[in-house]
Amino acid sequence: MEVVLAYLLDLLIGDPEGYPHPVRIIGRVVSHLESILRKYAKSDRALKIAGFILCGLTVTLAFAATYVLLYIAGLIHPYLKYALDVLIIYTCLATKDLGKAAGRVYEALAKGDIVEARRRLSYIVSRDTDRLDVENISRGAIETVAENISDGIIAPMFYAFIGGAPLAIFYKAASTLDSMVGYRNEKYLDLGFASAKLDDILNFIPARITGFLIVIAAFLLGYDYKNSWRIFLRDRFKHQSPNSAHGEAAVAGALNIQLGGLNYYFGKPEIKPTLGDGKEKITPQHIKDSIKIMYMTSFLGLVVFYIGRRLM
Questions:
Q1: What local confidence, expressed as pLDDT, does residue 18 receive?
Q2: What global pTM score does this model have?
Q3: Which spans are transmembrane here (predicted)?
Q4: How far apart are CA 135 and CA 130, in angstroms?
């Protein structure tokens, strides 16, 4: 029941600005540990070992701190522990914020303010946005929603149902590590190796569940669920990550659009594999459609996990 209440709380208030979010705290810990470890790791091999230490320390500290906090709360009063459990799980979910962020891009496009739309998109993507047209701004927003259905909603919900707040925070710590150091570039190739692999492992099951749920959501919302299933099966492995394309492929199929393609990062072009057949040209309306799919998928995940927990 804690996860259900946490989900409802997330839908109601999202992530208020200035709130001491656990992810921000984890991010500071990662930055501090990285700066310490880099002082002693001078070779590639040492950096890879340091990466395992960084990963292990971060997720262990996150899990242990949450467990101890809940234990202390339980000693004070069981209701306090329950409330704290709900509150911590709530911070791990990003349903409302994901919809709100993409919705703000749509609103700017609906007003015809492409400059503002580019600016708002830049808050939620890592690609260059300063020269994007309406179609590519829309594509960026849709890709963000589709990819983060798993990372920001289904995966933390999945682990919260299995192990409560401590395991949900464990997952968020791993996800934060991957977003900070899990890059395949010269700076993080060795240091981020362990974090990237842990993130791949933890997202393996949730990413696939997400793809299935998106197909069901497409059916319930009246989108092209047959094509969603077809594209999901065909294109879900067209990414360097074994997990990232599952949600995007299912959404692309449901909306009969094509995601992926050419992006620019720090002025350099990068062509990503395309997902979907592109029967329809991408428009701002597809952003709204992807948000609807995201909300329905999150609800389906809640129902499926709740029933699964009750049957165990």
A1: 61
A2: 0.91
A3: 49-73, 153-171, 201-223, 291-308
A4: 14
